[in-house]
Write a structure and sequence with these properties.
Layout lengths: L1 E5 L5 H9 L4 E5 L10 E4 L4 H10 L3 H9 L4 E4 L1 H6 E4 L14 E6 L10 E7 L7 E5 L4 E5 L4 E6 L2 E7 L2 E4 L10 H16 L1
Parallel strand pairs: 1-2, 1-3, 3-4, 4-12, 5-6
Antiparallel strand pairs: 6-9, 7-8, 7-10, 10-11, 11-12
């Protein structure tokens, strides 16, 4: 089982470590050929506008979109969620990235504040045993709306901080920045089920 991590910018090492510590082989994705044969894909946090530009420079926009739409299980965190979203609300900061338009959510980037306003908070993740997950929110996007093509599955209090559609998961927080492997483990379990059903 090979899991790809989009490795253009952002917290690629953290995502790689989070997957590798669960005993899974990781492949950096920097070109369309790197997508071949993947059992799952991770879109990491980082600077969404920069990642979007680099996706275009690498010729990855169409191959990424095709892979995810064809059913490759995908976990997107923070900037990754912004890129995965179907609708992106204009932010106060100006230039916004061009999303892939896959997950049926409307998001606004950096809506929890700037870097100095980052925080940790307990997150309830549906189906996750062991109590709340330690959510790390760093310049996180906010999910403004979950459309009919997706469903919420993670909450901070009453606020939705995670949405999914089948094997495609998007989170506003960073599970890779904690020592808690439960979110990645649950995602990999879903990916293994999807792989067996092909």
């Amino acid at each position: 089982m090979i899991v790809g991590v989009l490795a253009l910018q952002g917290d690629v090492p953290e995502q790689t470590r989070a997957i590798a510590r669960l005993g899974v082989q990781v492949r950096p994705v920097r070109s369309p050929s790197d997508l071949e044969g993947l059992a799952a894909l991770l879109l990491p946090g980082g600077e969404s506008t920069t990642i979007s530009d680099l996706i275009d420079r690498a010729g990855l926009r169409e191959p990424l979109t095709t892979a995810i739409r064809s059913g490759v299980p995908t976990l997107a965190t923070c900037a990754g969620l912004i890129l995965l979203s179907r609708y992106l609300e204009v932010s106060a900061e100006g230039r916004d990235p061009h999303p892939l338009g896959i997950l049926d959510v409307r998001v606004r980037r950096n809506d929890f504040g700037r870097q100095r306003e980052s925080f940790e908070a307990p997150v309830r993740v549906e189906g996750l045993r062991g109590g709340p997950f330690p959510g790390v929110f760093i310049r996180s996007p906010r999910i403004l709306l979950v459309g009919p093509g997706a469903e919420p599955f993670a909450w901070r209090g009453s606020e939705v901080v995670g949405a999914r559609a089948g094997n495609t998961w998007g989170l506003t927080f960073h599970p890779e920045l904690t020592d808690d492997p439960r979110v990645h483990r649950a995602f990999l379990q879903r990916a293994r089920v999807a792989r067996r059903s092909v």
